Amino acid sequence: MSESKTQTTDRHPLHNSYVIAILPFGFVHHGKLVDLGNRFCLDDARNIRYWRQREGGLPQLANEGFMLAPNETDKKTNVIDEVTDAIHFESFICLYPSKPFNGKKHV
């Protein structure tokens, strides 16, 4: 008698969704989460170097989206740096579901 084996892949609930990822050592990134099984990847990644203070913190930033034009001089807006490749990581501190990035590239 042959036994049928079904392989299930348990993916993170936010797999294939845009997230704000708080990573070890204080790095904060935004991108599309890909669960690779033993590690994670953020596609279309951006580094959130500075974000405007909000009452609701990062979850509010995730819900409202990002700014359209960065302004580093007054530090009253978000500063987003483009990442030229995907970001791979094995652990995270927190993931917030987010909207896709809707701003201009920070050059």
List the helices and strands and how they pair.
Elements: E1 18-22, E2 28-35, E3 40-50, H1 57-64, E4 79-82, E5 87-89, E6 94-97
Antiparallel strand pairs: 1-2, 1-6, 2-3, 3-4, 3-5
Structural features, described:
- The protein is mainly beta and 107 residues long.
- The protein has a domain at 11-51 and 84-100: Roll (SH3 type barrels), CATH 2.30.30.100.
- 7% of the residues lie in helices and 33% in strands.
- The chain has 1 helix and 6 strands; from the N terminus they run E-E-E-H-E-E-E.
- It has one helix at 57-64; strands at 18-22, 28-35, 40-50, 79-82, 87-89, 94-97.
- Strands 1, 2, 3, 4, 5 and 6 form a 6-stranded antiparallel sheet that branches.
- The model is unreliable at 1-8 and 68-75 (pLDDT under 50).
